Records
---
Amino acid sequence: LARKLAVVNQKGGVGKTTTAINLGTALAAVGRKVLLVDLDAQGNASTGLGIDRAKRDRTSYHLLVRASTVGATIVPSAIPNLDIIPASVELSGAELELVELNPPQRQLDEALRPVMRDYDFILIDCPPSLNLVTVNAMVAADAVLVPLQCEFFALEGLSQLLSTVDRVRRTLNPKLEVQGIVLTMFDRRNRLSEQVADDVRAHLGAKVYDTIIPRNVRVSEAPSHGRPALLYDHRCAGSQAYIQLAGEMLRRERQR
Amino acid sequence: LARKLAVVNQKGGVGKTTTAINLGTALAAVGRKVLLVDLDAQGNASTGLGIDRAKRDRTSYHLLVRASTVGATIVPSAIPNLDIIPASVELSGAELELVELNPPQRQLDEALRPVMRDYDFILIDCPPSLNLVTVNAMVAADAVLVPLQCEFFALEGLSQLLSTVDRVRRTLNPKLEVQGIVLTMFDRRNRLSEQVADDVRAHLGAKVYDTIIPRNVRVSEAPSHGRPALLYDHRCAGSQAYIQLAGEMLRRERQR
Ligand SMILES: Nc1ncnc2c1ncn2[C@@H]1O[C@H](COP(=O)(O)OP(=O)(O)OP(=O)(O)O)[C@@H](O)[C@H]1O
Ligand SMILES: Nc1ncnc2c1ncn2[C@@H]1O[C@H](COP(=O)(O)OP(=O)(O)OP(=O)(O)O)[C@@H](O)[C@H]1O
Ligand SMILES: [Mg+2]
Ligand SMILES: [Mg+2]
């Protein structure tokens, strides 16, 4: 049965999409079958995996509002073992439509049931907010993976995020846990990065991955070629870090 | 009468809050009376201006859902001529409450009317989405100011943002225009920055500010001290760029 992870953080630009794409690719590269669900109206995960706008016919929006079966939304990516459910702009209006469905928070969970046996991992890339779309992802997920940019504003939002996870666990999804916190865009030259990393480890200890994702320009160039960093330049520091992260994640999953 | 600018971009982490805080401070420093409205549930603009969590009693959330007068929400900042309406976490649920008010899109516009004569500029810091809260900001505003990070994913979202501005102008606020696009986190060492800047100027010409905000670590350190970069280190490249941006903005406003 697929292990479902929601990649969440309401702070914008912290590396959610980049982590979902590259971690997904690294897991697929070691033979795990992976489904990436793009839940962000911007559709960055779909673009980063080279899915043409023309192929985003049936999307995660249609899935959420029950306008499509999950089978009709799944598109293979250029990477073996990695499929994606693309996103579309209609997602930015999804909150007001979800609220009319019953129950509004469980639409994604129910919609993904038919494909649970087809994948080892389902990664859900969330938008930068704690709205009903993100809550749907947290209800469908077994755990949350939190990319955390090594910056002050990103640190400030962490307690709000963790208390939302607690609330969803208490009221909607008792199995939901924090799978891990991944430090991203770490810059060795910048004292602030070090301070944030130390601060987070002091508060959250073993929940914080050992693997740190460095700031690395090749990572931000890759999406303009429609390819994950792992394919665009697998030798670069960013790609190597995501390969290491996948390894550490699989170890954590075995020890569960 | 105050000139109202909504600082918008649904892409996360592009420098909306940093621009609202530092542009607001630079305008206040040259004698303009400025009100900063923090519309993001994360409350980063409130923190970046050193507003204690304890002082965020009546917030922009209360203003939106008509639970407070505007006068009761305004808090002076440590900077002369700069006031702020702080944000609170309840904003992440505001969309579902706004929908029950009539008309849902004009709540902020109506709420700000009583203070229009008290300020020269009102800057509205928006959350990273195109939801009803951001639409409220676009309906209240005379123009939008768009911070654009010099990265590929940020460029991808620009056309969606500009078509949303067009839609709001056609249906809700005929005066709404694009005041300008500010290139942020520009890194001279990174070819991608140059490519994005050239691309945006080719498409949008004079709408793009001449002033470019460089990536500058002092800018990202300032919020942890609760002070704008202009006060934390006014000689750094980031602060100087925001001072220059304020000057260019005032020139644009005079030429209107
Ligand atoms: N390790 C890295 N090194 C350099 N750039 C990075 C790295 N990770 C991500 N980026 C870049 O930083 C920007 C933000 O990353 P990304 O879009 O993945 O964040 P996000 O959290 O998904 O954003 P949003 O909140 O808008 O969904 C992107 O332009 C991306 O290419
Ligand atoms: N010119 C700059 N140089 C270096 N760091 C910067 C610069 N501008 C902003 N930052 C940092 O980048 C991060 C993102 O900026 P900011 O929070 O202002 O973006 P935002 O668009 O308001 O994000 P959100 O979408 O979450 O509201 C912050 O940690 C900020 O301190
Ligand atoms: Mg994203
Ligand atoms: Mg912000």
---
Amino acid sequence: MAVISIANQKGGVGKTTLTVNLAAALTQQNKKVLVVDTDPQGNATTSLIGLEDLETTLLEIVMDNIPPEEAVITIEKSFGNMYLLPAPPELALANIEIEGTGNLSYMKDILEQLKHQFDYILIDTPPSVSSLMLASLIASDGVIVPLQAEFLALEGLSQMWKLMETIRNGMNPFLELIGVVINMWDPRTILARQVLEEVKRVLGDKAFDIVIPRTVRVAEAPSHALTLLEYAPESKATQAFLELANEVDSRCKAM
Amino acid sequence: MAVISIANQKGGVGKTTLTVNLAAALTQQNKKVLVVDTDPQGNATTSLIGLEDLETTLLEIVMDNIPPEEAVITIEKSFGNMYLLPAPPELALANIEIEGTGNLSYMKDILEQLKHQFDYILIDTPPSVSSLMLASLIASDGVIVPLQAEFLALEGLSQMWKLMETIRNGMNPFLELIGVVINMWDPRTILARQVLEEVKRVLGDKAFDIVIPRTVRVAEAPSHALTLLEYAPESKATQAFLELANEVDSRCKAM
Ligand SMILES: Nc1ncnc2c1ncn2[C@@H]1O[C@H](COP(=O)(O)OP(=O)(O)OP(=O)(O)O)[C@@H](O)[C@H]1O
Ligand SMILES: Nc1ncnc2c1ncn2[C@@H]1O[C@H](COP(=O)(O)OP(=O)(O)OP(=O)(O)O)[C@@H](O)[C@H]1O
Ligand SMILES: [Mg+2]
Ligand SMILES: [Mg+2]
């Protein structure tokens, strides 16, 4: 069993895309996977179930002490059941209230009650360093960092590294970097190749060999509330997610 | 004189790119422009001056009451001087402390002391709803929202709208939406055309007619600490920023 945060404070690098499609790929490989959406944008929620009215979400669990099982939604897919703990937009302003309390272990407490039912828990985190992101890192065994092969995104990697150090030296000494995965890969640009070389030089085997190619199919799938496995099963990006799932599974077994 | 926040809680849509290059375009049209970087990632700071050690930044002004003029950096460009109030990475964890105080008018107080020296103040905001973003909106006359022509980015627009309503009904009744500008425009995808139609239908003339095309030149410029005007003066994206500056200037005169 592993709890994994998909995190990068840089925005728009593919955190939600990776969370949803890695969860689908792991499910296809007979793992029982819970997706926890901690981003008030609710993109993981929209990508999996569309725009539905939700009664119980992460907000009610944190603010009203509702048992977490009550909020978990089962989503029947052709390749198996996926499970989701959704996030509402109201979580944004509530997050500023939660930050006032200084309690950063609420996520760890919630996931303690759910862990035994799943092989993996994947947490989609919001961009920017915030208590929502810190609480997710504190609750996690490992982190996967999606990275765009661009200059500004590369800059952010050192900040992500320092943040993980702070968490490891404080609230969660066991937090490991499972790996960095390049997303929106476009081999035609020199910039992308320069960034990939730099990432491999700096990170060594912490950089996954698998890269997720840029393909418009990825950006279309959420508007149909479909994972890439269903929407474009033959796409190179789908193959990349399936290979990544294999690699993540073997790295977690070695953790 | 206008204070404008460049904001969208969705990550990676081009907030920093728009702030830096719109500031450059307005400077070329003989306006005196201050860029305020409120994102702890410091991408606007890196894009304008590279990775320098900074003594006084936004953090020292907010936490140590240093006069704001002391932190303003002058950057000599071929087309005129640009001005920057930089952000350090330490602002991220300090932000959680600032949120505890509940004081959201600190940015307004800082900019009151600088306003008289400039024609425009453009504020680059971080992704996610946070006190850094709220404080910037409270200090602003108007907001420009960059938008990627993709499904998940379109979802976020209604949340941005609700957030502006909350601010208008509370701390800043004068806050106006100057406009929404489509960035990373790629006419080849059907998805992009569908999103553009939807934006025009929902927003009417609040949607700028000018779109910023996707071009790798934009992503390369920050690694040289150059604005697009210097790095790729003939690029279609540069032309778009110059046209956008004209349009923003006439909309602000009518505000
Ligand atoms: N490999 C890819 N190819 C093409 N488009 C992609 C790819 N990965 C992600 N996208 C698209 O890029 C946009 C950003 O991705 P996504 O929303 O997953 O990033 P994020 O890091 O979760 O963003 P945020 O920081 O706002 O949470 C989305 O519109 C998504 O559909
Ligand atoms: N028109 C464009 N064409 C090509 N690349 C672009 C364009 N606009 C932005 N980019 C690139 O896309 C990435 C995201 O842009 P940027 O960092 O400006 O977004 P942001 O909204 O400020 O992100 P964040 O939410 O992390 O603050 C950057 O690498 C940038 O160089
Ligand atoms: Mg996301
Ligand atoms: Mg930015």
---
Amino acid sequence: MRAIAVINQKGGVGKTTTTVNLGAALLRLGFRVLLIDLDPQANMTIHLNVDPSGVDKSVYDVLCGKSAVADVMLECAGLSVVPSHIDLAGAEVELVSMVGRETILRDKLATLFADREKAGEAPFDFVLIDCPPSLGLLSLNALTFAGEVIIPMQTEYFALQGMTKLMDVVELVRSRLNPDLHISAIVPCRYDPRTNLAKEVLDEILRYFGDKVTKTRIRSNVRLAEAPSHGETVLDYDPESKGAADYLCLATELTGVAMPT
Amino acid sequence: MRAIAVINQKGGVGKTTTTVNLGAALLRLGFRVLLIDLDPQANMTIHLNVDPSGVDKSVYDVLCGKSAVADVMLECAGLSVVPSHIDLAGAEVELVSMVGRETILRDKLATLFADREKAGEAPFDFVLIDCPPSLGLLSLNALTFAGEVIIPMQTEYFALQGMTKLMDVVELVRSRLNPDLHISAIVPCRYDPRTNLAKEVLDEILRYFGDKVTKTRIRSNVRLAEAPSHGETVLDYDPESKGAADYLCLATELTGVAMPT
Ligand SMILES: Nc1ncnc2c1ncn2[C@@H]1O[C@H](COP(=O)(O)OP(=O)(O)OP(=O)(O)O)[C@@H](O)[C@H]1O
Ligand SMILES: Nc1ncnc2c1ncn2[C@@H]1O[C@H](COP(=O)(O)OP(=O)(O)OP(=O)(O)O)[C@@H](O)[C@H]1O
Ligand SMILES: [Mg+2]
Ligand SMILES: [Mg+2]
């Protein structure tokens, strides 16, 4: 099972778009996928046509309350989904003095996986976690559980700012809480191949991260921006679009598995 | 003097681009402009060709240290600029238990304006503050000093999310610290008039904010994204561009003053 934190403390770079559509692409390639929304803004939840205020319990109740992950998990278009809720905004304050507060998600997911195994249910192949645009307790829970980190990056000036801080946090979690954690991919997002600026920034990202940068660039495509307003992944909303093609390409690059024909 | 906090806790919506280029446009219309960078990422500072690590003292020393604003202020292409520095990231923690910690910027600016008046220097017509993508102590200092709030908003799905929280914070500062504070303009940014999505989101923003939304939309224009990599405002970098035209238009709309011919 590959457990992936989709993380970047910069806002609006493509974390949610990547979590949802890479998840959908992995499903299309035949994998079992669990998506976890760890952002109080609940964009991932809304994107998948789930109304956070209509949900009985969310990841908030898992982190701050007594709920098991199995109690809050939903099925959306073939994907297993742990929804979020604005109450999660209070988590950092509520958990500030709890011992082992970064390990709660990992422990509760361990229970989920163990229970599923006992019940003879097929294990997940991929767990993708959509992180909020910050490096606080919620992101720390994601990094403490995950084996790998995927960093979506916009090909705009200032894109590399804050990367040192992110790498420092990843290294801190790796050395103190989670020795397996490593950065597995930098994904250039919202890439506009027509502009020189995007190419220059891409070159700079390549100089900085070398072959951790995926060959697949997720190009700027309005279908990716429209899909959430229809409550669908881009693969359902417009399977012929560049957005759908790019995320399938990314899923193939990350797994070595090609599209079934 | 109009004191404006350029604020939105969402990342990447156009706060820095608006602070820099609206400031430059106001200068072009004949006003005296002071720009203050309140983001530890110091994008505004870098945009104006100032290297934060090369600066002796910054707004960090004003908020957390003993510096006067006059000690750290620079001149950049006709604009007065208070630069930022990554050390500002520590400000929230350093000032957490200081009495009146939201009023530090206001007090230090009051000293600046009083000293300038004594010295017979012309007062500023506009003070624009570039806020970080959060509603913490730095943004609170901006809101406690400013008379008006300008909110840049991206015309994308999820744009209105978080607006209630922002309005609540503005109301809180207004009622407890700064009775003059009010929202004077919502500026649609990165607007792509060719897509239906942008028009739909703009309609929703108009329904929500009515005539606080500026008639001027700042259109998506690669020149605005390229200008910071040249250390210039878009008015210097490409005065014929749509980006330059839109920000001049915005400055005229906010002041009633037309371009000198
Ligand atoms: N490749 C793309 N082409 C066009 N639009 C995109 C693309 N990727 C993302 N977007 C749009 O950009 C906006 C920001 O993307 P997204 O929500 O995925 O970023 P995020 O990093 O999750 O943001 P946040 O930090 O607020 O959680 C959304 O409106 C999304 O639809
Ligand atoms: N109208 C526009 N057209 C094209 N690019 C734009 C436009 N406005 C902003 N950008 C680009 O979008 C990115 C984000 O803009 P900007 O830095 O102004 O946002 P911000 O709200 O200050 O972000 P942050 O929350 O990180 O401080 C930048 O790379 C900028 O150059
Ligand atoms: Mg997101
Ligand atoms: Mg900014």
